[in-house]
Amino acid sequence: MLSTIAAAALPILVVTLALGGVAKLATVRRETSPGALARLGPAVLMPERFARPALYVCSLVEIALATGLLVVDHPAARWLPVAFFAVATYVLWDLRRRRPDAGCGCFGEVSAAPVGLRSIGRAAALTAMTAVVAVENATGLPALTAETAAWAGGGVALLLALSPEIDQSVSRLRHRAPCEQRPMPPGRALSRLRGSEAWRAHAGSLLTDEPSDMWRELCWRFFAFPAQGNAEVVFAVYLSGRRPAVRAAVVGADGHVTSADERRDASLRESTPVSA
After folding, report:
1. How many CA atoms lie within 13 A of 163 on its CB side?
2. 246-251 and 213-217 strand pairing
3. SS3 call for 226
4. Which ranges in the chain belong to alpha helices (H)?
5. Handedness of CA 180, 182, 186, 188 (dihedral sign)
6. 222 vs 253, which has greater pLDDT?
7. What is the pLDDT of residues 78-137, one digit of tens each?
8. Sheet holding 213-217, edge to edge
């Protein structure tokens, strides 16, 4: 039975370690506010100036441990994750006692809620899983059988039940801020613009691919591009939805604004001969 449990636990451990490492790297790259990293996980227990290096080191260690479980057939590759999760369990317990306001940072900024018994229980469960994997000398991705899949499903369900991040994610989805208050990097809106039909319709008349000006008004991001004929094309990108609306208008040298439809109709009138 232990061999089956080990085979089911191994992919769960690899995915968990990889997700934790990648999430921490992403959090370090987009620090939302000064001092935010110092309130997450291991960075809480050290001076603020070491918060970023601590999360970098922790993320790289997790990615290395996940890789070792997959490709390295050596006892060290199996027992190091046991030590990692055992230490993590103790650190979370100590963190809950000494800094009850701090988050575990297990999955970066997603794990910003104060450490509770569920987070500690999850770390303990992962420690037990890694111990079984180490004892059974499991390495790589095992063959999937019905029994293994059943144990893996149970392991995933246990970890989800012990993950406060699930509750936080559901709460955020239920109480999302209105569109005009949500952050949206200009680069993402620009990517949406360049994939739109409005962009393709006007790209040939633009003098450059980079906007000369950009600004935001409520849920719209505006981009202005210099165009031929001493004119300017202004695009408006809606910042919500999977297929956001994109509008375009041409501003002439005299300040007259012409929509894309009006410009097309004017071109058709000029190209249509007038009958006698």
Report:
1. 19
2. unpaired
3. strand
4. 2-29, 51-71, 75-98, 117-135, 146-161, 164-174, 186-194, 197-202, 260-271
5. negative
6. 222
7. 999 999 999 999 988 988 887 776 778 888 777 777 788 888 999 999 999 999 999 988
8. 213-217, 220-227, 231-238, 246-251, 257-259
Report the candidate in 118, 111, 255, 248 with the shortest Cα–Cα distance to residue 169.
111
Query: Helix crossing, 117-135 with 146-161: angle to 10°?
Result: 150
Question: Which has the closest alpha carbon to 200: 267, 269, 260?
Answer: 260
How far, CA to CA in Å, does 37 sit from each of 30, 109, 180, 184? 10, 8, 26, 21
If you search the block for the tokens 């849920």, which residue do you land on? Answer: 219
CA distance 207 to 82: 59
Neighbours of 20 (CB within 10 A): 25
Radius of gyration of the chain (CA): 27
What is the token pair recorded at 51?
């918060």
Contacts of 266 (CB under 8 A, 6+ apart): 258
Residue 33 DSSP class: S
